Amino acid sequence: KVESNNLDVEVKSELETEEKGMEQESTRESDSNILDVSSDYPREKHISIQRHLADLAKLADLREDEKKRCPLCPEEKLKACYGYKLHRHLQNLHWKVSVEFEGYRMCICHLPCHPVKPNLAGDQTLSNMGAHYHCIICSATITRRTDMISHINRHVNKGETESRFATVPAPKSSEVLKELATDVQVLPNYSTPQKTDSYFNPKMKLNRQLIFCTLAVLAEERKPIECLDAFGATGIMGLQWAKHLRSAVKVTINDCNENSVTMIRENCHLNKMKVKLDTVEEDNGEAMGDGEENTDTIEVTRMDANVIMHLRAFDFIHLDPFGTSVNYLDSAFRNVRNLGIVSLTSTDTSSLYAKAQHVALRHYGCNIVRTEYYKELAARMIIAAVTRAAARCNKGIEVLLAVALEHFVLVVVRVLRGPSNADDSAKKIRYLIHCQWCEERIFQKQGNMAEENPYQQLPCDCHGSMPGKMAVVLGPLWSGALFNTGFLRRMLVEAVQHGLDEAQPLLKTLACEAECTTPKQFSTHGPPDENKQEECGVYIKTANASTESFLIHGKRKSEEVIRNTAKRQKSENSAEHPAFYYNIHRHSIKGMNMPKLNKFLNYLSEAGYRVSRTHFDPMGVRTNAPLAQFKTVLMKYSTPTYMGAQAEAPGQRLGDTQLGEQAHGKAGGAEFMEDDKCAVAAALLTKDCPAPCAAD
């Protein structure tokens, strides 16, 4: 009997040493940062991962007549106890707080697998802080249950659903999407940013079409051009460039995520493109059919966006990070070539649209408030940050395009080298004075002398008639033009040629907005000019023979060529459009029915003002008319809400001669306030009086 007892003790000691060895191996695995999910050899799961509560109870070998230890708790935390008590302990402490995944339960573990911070005495005591979970996929140790659930969801979103201990790995589910004759393969939950490596947003299709038209116009100026998609994700944008522009562009798609780079290479092979990775070309010959030849080559790189823009020079750079792009502006303007183009898409609309004003101040160094023209305010705020970044590299900018929609703000600028261009661009950054009562606004005058009352620069009289401070200073903002008419016309031509149906209406609206004309006045036919050619009914300007030399890639441009290029760009710019716009609903008169928007545009145009619609606001009106005259015209052609009243409309008492006299000066503001009071009073009188009395 004594010998048998000694054998039992030896066997138990050997089992304990094996368990300790297994625990040490699991600790080393959890501490390592290498999460090799695609390992081919199976591994045993941790004892805390079970399918049923009975399987967990079998580990304790419950018996009513013997005391047993908990298999997931050390002896210092729970001493050996009888079976009924241990079963209750396993059910309440371990099983109820477990995390379920594919039929398995990851129970909470109190064994010394997870390192605990030492206490004041210097020793690592076991406490409640040592409780943790073991991941069923990557065997990582995580302390909180909510963090464990998020950790598992990240594996699922990335397609890493096979377990390490599974003998047959499950295939990754993928989906193939098609846009602009380009196929891309994406992983599940592809439309959720920061949760998948292959982020693809179908709502940004319009944004991708605008950038494609921009690159197509640049490709007509110089060939070939080196273009960079700094944040490739699935590589959809770079694939569209290479597939449709072909030899005119040399595409480089970059991403810092290894899984994204792998996905980009697969998408290149899916679209029968050659991949140049680490100066080695890979050709997927099996993907091509018999007799098909495709010489298009796409370079795929894996590095930080700031690094690749510091190392190499490009003609076209597109930045589309998650959120703000201010962290990459200095690198983008460092090596971009002269007359190149930088486009950036910002999706941090909460800070740009004045919902998080402190974030806008932190990222862009700009003080803003919520206004009726908040979308244009966001575009000018981004351009101001771009201008400062370009000026630090002794470069100026020319704004070609600025679009602010619901999901993003797109800004496209042309780079002009030279300190003088940088100074000219920096002078267009100014502060804006905004009246919070009537929404009037004006850019602050340039000068170094401090004014005693800068609010007097506002055309309105709210600062004098209202008590307290009614105006705020916003900025610094870009005060120059937001559009280049000639460039937009050429983009419209490219959109028609490539069949981009969604971008054509927006580009036509932008062209009208750049010229500050209505769609009826917008003419696609221009006067005859030897330097113009007609494409798809739109006249565009082409470079002269003397300017062809600047298209030669890699040669230094002479002073004469740069002078001719500047003249060509200056000729493309028409009269600068007025800054900001007014919302017709914001300034409507209570008790009056305002006219239709298109008719109101004609009324303002007949009054002698430049007027157009704006893409920033469907009910917005861009005009050079002061706010007082804007309201006067709106009130003149508004009708009373109650049609039973036949009294003379108060707006009819304002003749055309009186409206013309009010077109200049601040006197119209006071007269408008009196007429506005009369209009409200007349509307109230016609409401209460009967019809015969009103007729009399």
Describe this structure in words.
Among the domains are: 49-117 and 129-158, no CATH class; 175-278 and 296-446 and 466-486, Vaccinia Virus protein VP39 (Rossmann fold, 3-Layer(aba) Sandwich), CATH 3.40.50.150; 487-515, no CATH class; 581-640, N2,N2-dimethylguanosine tRNA methyltransferase, C-terminal domain (Phenylalanyl-tRNA Synthetase, Chain B, domain 1). The chain is built from 22 helices and 26 strands. It is 36% helix and 16% strand. It is α+β, with helices and mostly antiparallel strands and 696 residues long. The chain has a nine-stranded mixed sheet, sandwiched between helices. The model is unreliable at 1-5, 23-42, 120-129, 163-172, 284-294, 525-558, 570-574 and 644-696 (pLDDT under 50). The termini are far apart. Residues 1-39 are annotated as: Disordered. GO terms for molecular function: tRNA (guanine) methyltransferase activity; tRNA binding; zinc ion binding. It comes from Columbina picui. One of its GO terms (cellular component) is nucleolus.
